[in-house]
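Section 5: illustrative case.
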């Protein structure tokens, strides 16, 4: 019986690891997200990742090592730095604001604790303004609102300590119909945004609600503004650009 139990344990562990890997892999392959089987695999992977995280703590994000390495090798200076995960990474900020020295420091799969771990490459930009948008990867990994909020405050404090004017952008909601797991962490996203708005008000930090105009109470992020339930469509990025444009250009 012991050997049977061991075999079952090994099988379960391997299944969880496979699901975890599949979730991370498919999270970055937006071109095939519309395939039902791939979407199911992604959600299974995210569920497995959440279970593993709760059982033994979170591993650091190891995705995109080539991008992370270039952050360190080429410390480009700019007036504005965009800080976030794959949603920020995919933004064509140079094209949106061609007359602004803007640096993209988004990295796919990053949680707030991952960003804390790579703050030197963000601070080295020496930006006058920092736009931060994070959180969805934290919640897909099972983290609490308090954990994410506390990390967020540390990120903001570090940016402010280097003289940057910080803009907290609301964590963009997900779409419950495109991504089944969204219904589970959408309330957390909304609670985080409330706490971030309150924190910004009492801390002399700018808060801007990116979700206004592209979400609904029932659906979360509306379908025309997303490519897969989490990441944004071109229309979504245009909305984001319009929202932050006055702040990007403000003196």
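Designed sequence:
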């Amino acid at each position: 019986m012991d050997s049977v139990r061991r075999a079952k344990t090994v099988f379960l562990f391997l299944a969880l690891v496979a699901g975890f890997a599949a979730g991370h892999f498919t999270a970055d392959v937006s071109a095939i997200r519309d395939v039902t089987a791939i979407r199911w695999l992604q959600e299974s992977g995210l569920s497995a990742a959440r279970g593993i995280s709760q059982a033994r703590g979170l591993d650091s994000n190891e995705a995109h090592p080539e991008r992370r390495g270039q952050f360190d090798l080429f410390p480009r200076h700019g007036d504005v730095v965009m800080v976030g995960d794959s949603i920020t990474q995919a933004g064509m900020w140079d094209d949106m604001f061609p007359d602004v020295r803007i640096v993209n420091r988004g990295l796919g799969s990053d949680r707030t604790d991952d960003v804390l771990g790579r703050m030197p490459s963000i601070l080295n930009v020496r930006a006058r303004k920092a736009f931060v948008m994070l959180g969805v990867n934290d919640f897909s990994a099972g983290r609490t609102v308090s954990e994410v909020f506390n990390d967020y405050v540390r990120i903001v404090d570090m940016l402010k300590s280097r003289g940057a004017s910080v803009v907290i952008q609301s964590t963009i909601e997900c779409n419950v119909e495109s991504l089944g797991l969204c219904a589970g962490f959408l309330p957390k996203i909304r609670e985080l945004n409330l706490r971030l708005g309150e924190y910004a008000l009492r801390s002399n930090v700018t808060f801007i609600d990116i979700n206004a105009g592209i979400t609904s109470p029932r659906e979360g992020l509306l379908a025309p503004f997303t490519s897969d339930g989490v990441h944004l469509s071109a229309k979504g990025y245009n909305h984001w650009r319009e929202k932050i444009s006055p702040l990007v250009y403000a003196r």
